[in-house]
Amino acid sequence: MSEQGPNVILRTSPHLRVSPPVHVIMRNVVWALLPVCAFSIYQFGISVLGLIVTCVASCILTEHVICRLSGRDSAVKDWSAVITGILLALCLPPGFPYWMAAVAGFVGIGVGKMFFGGLGFNVMNPALVGRAFAQASFTVPITTWVPSMVPDRFTQFIPSSITLPFLKPNSVTEWLGQVAPDGFTGATPLAVMKFDHVQSIPTMDLFVGTSAGSAGETSALLILLCGLYLVFRKMMDWRITASILLTAGGISGILYMVNPAVYPDPLFTLCTGGLMLGAVFMATDMVASPVTPLGVWIYGALIGTITVVIRFWGGLNEGVMYAILLGNAFSPLIAMITQPRIYGARKAKGAA
Fold first, then answer.
1. Distance CA 179, CA 169 (A)
2. Rg of the chain, C-alpha, whole Å
3. Please, is 168 exposed, middle or buried when counting C-beta atoms within 10 Å of its C-beta (0-12, 13-18, 19+)?
4. Number of alpha carbons in the 13 Å side-chain half-sphere of residue 344
5. In sequence order, what are the residues at sequence separation of 6 or more whose Cβ sits closer than 8 angstroms to the Cβ of residue 92?
């Protein structure tokens, strides 16, 4: 009787490890966004909770219906629609009307994602497509801000949140007069710096997150910590985020040294607006960003540069959304021109 040894399987290189499935990656991104959502609800109250639920429900329902109408199985189990809804809600004002948020979610998924074929085929970040639609269609509500840490934020909604569809949003002026701290002007720190050249809030407060702004864009520290979770899980390309922040901080630092009376310091630039949220969770979209080693740095530098240009010399006080969308548009070109040379292949010579 002979003993049979263990089976040994020999394979030739390359030896590739299996990457986590798409739904696992997407689910981890949702876990990373939950602390940002929780802090936003703590800051602005139940209105933001309703905003997040509305955006997520709109995105999931839109994707499910379009899949069914096109004869495909529903793709909502991959969690990508949930991410789109959360990111859309976090980059909207806390008191944004719910029906407008639902329309923005429909456009983000329908036009920004399903129109191109669904997950893996979208040219631009769907959440920012919905945000851009809201920026163009609802100009007053998208620029109406409320202060954070209002005493009654957990017991009452911001009046504008529950405005009925196609009606003029409820005025928040009287409500702000009752609950807002003295001196609140309805402007974000970035808008005050843009138009009045005054840094109204200390940089450390902006870094921690205690100012007015979009629902989930106020705490740069928390966003960075949540992004580090994805980096350690190898589910986010840190080079894109680093390139954006280094470029935006470097350009703003040079301008600050030239004329500190007009331009803010680099930390103010990095901690205000949607730069941190966009650099960590939106610009790193695996589908809409390049994957070549050099391409990711060029892509991030392009977004950082456009952001600073719009903020300092454009008509808007914020430029992150348009910068990322333009970066998404240039992503295929960047990936094409930065393809690494195949090992052993000769470099092509130009024609005489």
1. 19
2. 22
3. exposed
4. 0
5. 51, 55, 101, 104, 131, 134, 142, 214, 215
Token duo for residue 270? 């990095």
Mean pLDDT of the chain: 85
Region 16-32: mean pLDDT is 83
**What angle (nearest 5°) sits at the alpha carbon of residue 49, between those of residues 135 and 219?**
70
Residues recorded for the chain: 352
Distance CA 345, CA 277 (A): 40
C-alpha distances in Å from residue 15, one per residue of 7, 21, 293: 19, 18, 21
- Residue 166 CB neighbour total at 10 angstroms: 6
Answer whether residue 181 shows pLDDT above 60.
Answer: no
Q: How far is CA 30 from CA 56, 130, 260, in A?
A: 11, 19, 39
**Is 341 in contact with 347 (CB distance < 8 Å)?**
yes
> Which residues lie closer than 8 Å to 243 by C-beta, 6 or more apart?
296, 297, 298, 299, 300, 301, 303, 304
Do 90 and 51 contact (CB within 8 A), yes or no? no
User: pLDDT tens digits for 69-118?
Assistant: 988 888 888 899 999 999 999 999 998 999 999 999 999 999 999 988 88
Q: Pick the residue with more confidence: 160 or 30? A: 30
Rounded to a whole number of angstroms, the distance between the first and last alpha carbons of the chain is 75
* Number of other residues whose CB lies within 10 A of the CB of residue 341: 9
H-only helix segments in 138-237:
173-179, 189-196, 203-208, 220-232
pTM of the model: 0.88
d(CA 44, CA 98): 15
